[in-house]
Amino acid sequence: MQQEPTIILSGTDPDLPRKVPPNIERYTGLREIARGGNGILRAGFDPVTGRNVAIKTLHFEKRGDNNERRRLLREARVTAQLQHPNTVPVYDIGTDLMHGIFFTMKLISGENLFQILRRIAAGDKQTTAHYHVHRRVESLIGTCQALAYAHSRGVIHRDVKPENIWVGNFNEVYLLDWGTAKVWGAIDDQTLQRYDASKLKAKENDQLQTLTGGGQRPGTPLYMSPEQIQGTRAIDERSDIFSAGVCLYELLAIREPFRGANVDETFHNIISCSVPPPSERSPDRKIPPLADEIVMRAIEKRPGDRFQAMTEMVQSLRELLPLLDQG
């Protein structure tokens, strides 16, 4: 778990540096804090503002990949324009001679919701007590608020899942990774993210097949809406509502509703199979009927049968909060 950096009084006193190096050279004390499939996240210190920042770049071998560059730039610009308490502030975007495209943002503390759910599923009593169901639903409300704000500005996230929900040490909640977002009116959007099943299978199938044996976490397929998989209609905010509903199911029941042995089976479950409500899946967790109603409405197969706006789902979740155990 990342900790909040300490404010050092002496760091607020010096005059501005006489000569500020350009791009990433401006930041000192760089250290890697996370590494993903396409990017590297580093922490560094900005001597101009006197604050610690996070710096995201592509892997060295992907610096020249136009699609990866464009996706990272998309993530940076969308995140920068979505100025909401539940999104991470972006400070700077640029191109560095050594690192290529980069952007800097607030250095956040805490951990993602998947890490929390994994420990709860393993029976960790301390985590279960600290992140009781009331707090977990509050975290999802913050996520849905960010989505409602994004939707009002023509942005669909398209990759809502526990790994992208960050819970801070002081109850902050951030929705991360806007690199696959759909922006209304953007050209050539399919180049940035191809959600059709045939291409996604090759990318994700190994992860799903090794889930039970190797402890790897499957990615996007578990949270995709039927229309994302089928590619038969335009994706709108109701797709994010479906994904948020899957997250809600998981944080209530501590079980994934649609997981299959591989991508084919998972997609089949999402498109064609009904799942029991969370209270039936995990009867020992005392899930109230209203929670079942919200989940099952959010994960309806037909978009027209779901909540029609994220604000509607947020309102229902707020009505649910008083009925949930607070540990």
Automatic annotation (TrEMBL):
Please name the Pfam families in this protein's record. Pkinase (PF00069)
Give the domain of life: Bacteria
Alphabetically, the GO molecular function entries are: ATP binding; protein serine/threonine kinase activity
Which PROSITE patterns does the entry link to? PROTEIN_KINASE_DOM (PS50011)
Give EC number(s), comma-separated. Answer: 2.7.11.1
Alphabetical UniProt keywords: ATP-binding, Kinase, Nucleotide-binding, Transferase
- Domain Protein kinase, chain residue ranges per copy: 27-324
User: What start and end residues bound the annotated signal peptide?
Assistant: none
Q: Where are the transmembrane segments?
A: none
**Which residue stretches, if any, does this entry annotate as coiled coil?**
none
Entry annotated with the keyword Transferase: yes
- PANTHER family attached here? MITOGEN-ACTIVATED PROTEIN KINASE KINASE KINASE 20-RELATED, SERINE_THREONINE-PROTEIN KINASE NEKL-3
Protein name (Swiss-Prot/TrEMBL)? Serine/threonine-protein kinase PknD
Q: Which organism's genome codes for this protein?
A: Stieleria bergensis
Q: What is the lineage of its organism?
A: Bacteria, Pseudomonadati, Planctomycetota, Planctomycetia, Pirellulales
